[in-house]
């Protein structure tokens, strides 16, 4: 028996009603069982599957995708009309070390959409914004303090430390900003955000980005700007009145 997926498949603009149980079976069907009504929808995938259905944003859009693997070695990705949220994603059965519960509207940490957007970073440092979400025992109390560790993971072509870490303890949920240093080589990296609450529950989120991949844009301006400057000087210092061109003819009768 595989582990079931609990996910909110509420569509855009609809009122939240409850969670949906998503699971596969040996009969080749993908089952989506609505929690409040117990009504089941099935999708015929035609192959046996015993693994857990995972959920994440795969295609880079704003919707949630369901990932199904089969015993034949095939991987299916089903798009849903439900909007994606980082706390909705379920990338592994255990979601890290010891968290097997649904995180949205409960407890978790995630990188805000503006900070997790794929981009190229330059300079000496960059900012990321995270949000600590905690409604586990609201309003009776929170699970603070929250021990947050932000790690920058870089590949082997970087000569420095492979992992650059920063640790900070927050006593209140909400949005917080942290600054990380950039690496000095042209490479890609992954930012991993980890949080442990007072009960020892572990939550994490991550995103990828690149460093100095578009340095050639600076070289382009280094070539173009001097030429534009010289052209501007010639335009400013040009003669204001028309002057006759010098003549080298030997005809003195003219």
UniProtKB/TrEMBL annotation:
Subcellular location: Membrane
Membrane topology type: Single-pass membrane protein
Membrane-crossing segments per the record: 218-237
Pfam families with a match to the protein in the record: Beta-sand_DEX1
Keyword check for Transmembrane: yes
Keywords: Membrane, Transmembrane, Transmembrane helix
UniProt keyword annotation of RNA-binding present: no
GO cellular component, as recorded: membrane
Domain DEX1 C-terminal: start-end pairs: 108-212
PANTHER family linked to this entry: PROTEIN DEFECTIVE IN EXINE FORMATION 1, PTHR21419
Name of the protein this chain belongs to: Defective in exine formation
Source organism of this protein record: Solanum tuberosum
Gene designation per UniProt: LOC102581499
């Amino acid at each position: 028996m595989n582990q079931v997926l609990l996910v909110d498949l509420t569509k855009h603009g609809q009122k939240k009603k409850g969670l949906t149980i998503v699971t596969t079976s040996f009969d080749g069907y993908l089952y989506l069982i609505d929690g409040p009504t117990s009504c089941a929808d099935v999708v015929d995938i035609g192959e046996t599957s015993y693994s857990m259905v995972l959920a994440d944003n795969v295609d880079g859009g704003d919707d949630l995708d369901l990932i199904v693997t089969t015993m034949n070695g095939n991987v299916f990705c089903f798009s849903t009309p439900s909007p994606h949220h980082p706390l909705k994603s379920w990338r592994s059965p255990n979601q890290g070390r010891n968290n097997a519960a649904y995180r949205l509207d409960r407890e978790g940490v995630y990188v805000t959409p503006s900070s997790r957007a794929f981009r190229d970073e330059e300079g000496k440092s960059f900012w990321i914004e995270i949000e600590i979400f905690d409604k586990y025992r609201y309003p009776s109390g929170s699970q603070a303090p929250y021990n947050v560790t932000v790690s920058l993971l870089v590949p082997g072509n970087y000569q420095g430390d492979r992992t650059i870490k920063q640790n900070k303890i927050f006593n209140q949920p909400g949005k917080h900003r942290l600054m990380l240093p950039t690496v000095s080589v042209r490479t890609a990296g992954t930012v991993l955000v980890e949080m442990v609450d007072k009960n020892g529950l572990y939550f994490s989120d991550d995103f990828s980005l690149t460093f100095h991949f578009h340095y050639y844009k600076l070289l382009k301006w280094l070539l173009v700007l001097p030429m534009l400057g010289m052209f501007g000087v010639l335009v400013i210092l040009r003669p204001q009145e028309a002057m006759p061109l010098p003549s080298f003819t030997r005809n003195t009768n003219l």
